[in-house]
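PROTEIN DESIGN WORKSHEET
SECTION A - STRUCTURE
LENGTH: 263
TOKENS:
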């Protein structure tokens, strides 16, 4: 099996390397990593600009990831999937895995996510697709290993998606470093959380002499709502790995309960 790994945080994110390394080390298949040269968060399913597009070989950040075929692409996450499928980087991938994103991709905000958008393009191509996101808490160290572990555990579920139409398995992982503290895996629905409801914006004068003003935006955690236990946001905050099947038309009608019981 050939696994295309992409992300929206960029080629320098440790999350995408942790994901690629975990999939390879688990013996799940041959890994091809294609990630944006710079961060492309919030680009959803945006196509790359019609300009000169480039791919360059990328070196791993640590020796543990040596041997992974990796490329940096000067475009969007969706463009990374296009490159992985069409640019002649070897046999076409059988599966798309996107992440590990720094921060949850949950609620209605999945529509904004470059991580989910890239996985969705793979799904629309007929490939099983997984999107993996890791909750972050301020400046606390990211538990990349927990999300990588969750990706490996849920990866076998993808085979059950093959031939069922475009479906993305959207996985959100709590901010937990010790695996034995993860409470389990839970199938969830999208919460009603909307990013725009918790953003403060302010205009400031910009000292550029051209009449422009600087717009600053701040995520206001004090306005976060309470989340039901059966939603993705609620499950993660209760210590569970959340799995939400998604399709281009909304939540996918898919019962994961039998498979989750074995995880």
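SECTION B - SEQUENCE
RESIDUE ASSIGNMENT:
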């Amino acid at each position: 099996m050939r696994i295309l790994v992409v992300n929206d945080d960029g080629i320098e994110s440790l999350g995408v390397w942790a994901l690629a390394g975990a999939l390879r080390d688990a013996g799940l298949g041959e890994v091809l990593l294609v990630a944006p040269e710079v961060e492309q968060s919030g680009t959803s399913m945006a196509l790359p600009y019609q300009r000169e597009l480039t791919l360059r070989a990328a070196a791993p950040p640590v020796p543990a990831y040596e041997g992974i075929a990796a490329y940096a692409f000067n475009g969007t996450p969706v463009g990374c999937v296009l490159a992985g499928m069409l640019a002649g980087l070897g046999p076409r991938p059988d599966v798309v895995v996107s992440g590990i994103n720094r921060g949850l991709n949950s609620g209605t905000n999945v529509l904004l996510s470059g991580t989910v958008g890239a996985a969705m393009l793979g799904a629309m191509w007929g490939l099983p697709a997984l999107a993996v996101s890791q909750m972050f808490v301020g400046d606390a160290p990211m538990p990349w290993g927990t999300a990588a572990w969750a990706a490996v555990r849920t990866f076998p579920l993808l085979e059950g998606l093959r031939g069922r139409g475009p479906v993305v398995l959207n996985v959100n992982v709590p901010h937990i470093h010790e695996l034995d503290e993860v409470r389990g895996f839970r199938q969830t629905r999208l919460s009603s959380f909307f990013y725009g409801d918790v953003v403060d914006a302010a205009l400031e004068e910009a000292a550029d002499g051209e009449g422009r003003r600087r717009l600053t935006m701040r995520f206001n955690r004090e306005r976060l709502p309470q989340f039901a236990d059966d939603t993705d946001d609620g499950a993660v905050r209760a210590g569970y790995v959340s799995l939400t099947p998604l399709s281009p038309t909304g939540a996918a009608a898919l019962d994961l309960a039998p498979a989750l019981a074995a995880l």
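SECTION C - NOTES
The chain has six helices and twelve strands.
The longest helix spans residues 14-25.
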